[in-house]
Amino acid sequence: MIKPRVWISRPFFPDIIDRLRDHFDVHAEAEERAFSAAELAERLANSDAAIVGLADKIDGKVLEGAPKLRFVANLGVGYNNLDIDALTKRGVGASNTPDVLNETVADYAWALMLAAARRVGEAERWLRDGQWHGSRFEGWLGADVHGKTIGILGMGRIGQAIARRAAGFRARVIYHNRSRLDAALERECAATYVDKASLLAQSDHLILVLPYTPENRHSIGEAELKAMKPTSVLVNIARGGIVDDAALARALAAGTIASAGVDVFEGEPSVHPDLLKIENIVLSPHIASASRDTRRDMAALAVDNVLAAFGHGPHAGRPPTIINPGVLADAS
Question: What share of residues in the chain are helix, strand, coil (percent, to 5)?
């Protein structure tokens, strides 16, 4: 019996990939790299399933040459790299990896916030450059986090995890979200709902955790940055495009806000060149979920979804984090 073919666009943990081999003909890339639309179409042409990353843009044109494709598992909670409408029209299921990364991403949001507030990146570069010749009492003055107001824009599960960590810093937490949390969750997170204008005006540290949608594009632009405190710190662990990166570069250069920590960028892996010239920013290459344990959990969940889509494993027939479950009903 011929096994269905699964293509894996990037290498990950061999023991987790091996779980597929009893049921699939596995074709896993040996190294991680960017694929053009033509290369994606070529690799999907004879594939029944695929496990892909956020850099792999699966749209209607790519799908035209993939008549056998039945399921795509995305290695990430966000899936704006997938054209869900096009996949659904072709009866192709899709999944993502939510929840397993919440706590790790929340940890990283705090890491970026602390690094930006206390000027860790600037100080390290200065030290490595051989500039440390003695102590200055008023040198490297950063911003405190303890006792300050932490603002969160986007209060889903990751936002809530970020809020819970604030208790140890005796920080006040305010948030804005598309819909207000229920009272029990607000108490658990010790968070107060405010409108967006108040969030911008009151936050000493503002963390962005909202999903990317066309409506959310440039939720933080020039006007919003000007509405923030000049001493404030902005942290973006959400998605590239949530922030107008050009406006952020101008605001940091002009002292409109004090500093920023950014893990996601418009057009990544490209980064706006003006951001690279600025000292008062901490930059990282979209690694908020990159702990070994969490990346293993994400890979395992992607594999679970593929197995389930083809009737295998404990979730047989019901991929646990399918995005478009209607395709299952249509196929039955």
Answer: 40, 15, 45
CA dist 99 and 297 (Å) reads 10
Would residue 239 show up in a list of annotated catalytic residues for this protein?
yes
286 is catalytic: yes
User: What pLDDT shows up at residue 159?
Assistant: 98
Q: What is the pLDDT of residue 332?
A: 52
Output the pLDDT for position 236: 99
Q: What is the DSSP letter of 169?
A: G
Contact 84, 324 (CB under 8 A): yes
* Predicted local distance difference test score (pLDDT) of residue 330: 67
As beta bridge partners, residue 220 has 243
Q: Hey, what's the torsion of the CAs at 6, 8, 14, 16, to 10 degrees?
A: -70
Exactly one of 70, 119, 176, 239 is catalytic; name it. 239
Q: What is the pLDDT of residue 329?
A: 72
| Superfamily of structural domain 5-98+292-331 | NAD(P)-binding Rossmann-like Domain (3.40.50.720)
Please write down the long-range contacts of 269-276, taking CB distance under 8 Å and 24 or more positions apart.
269/34, 269/55, 271/245, 272/245, 272/246, 274/245, 274/246, 274/249, 274/250, 275/245, 275/248, 275/249
Q: What pLDDT is attached to residue 135?
A: 84
CATH class of 102-283: alpha beta
pLDDT at residue 14 in the model? 97
Residues of the chain with pLDDT under 70: 330-332
Q: Is 268 a catalytic residue?
A: yes
Q: If you ran DSSP here, which 8-state letter would residue 263 be given? A: S
Pairwise CA distance, residues 53 & 89, whole Å: 21
Domain positions in the chain: 5-98+292-331, 102-283
Domains 5-98+292-331 and 102-283 fall in the same CATH topology: yes
Q: Of 268, 296, 312, 315, which residue is the catalytic one?
A: 268
Give residue 136's pLDDT.
86
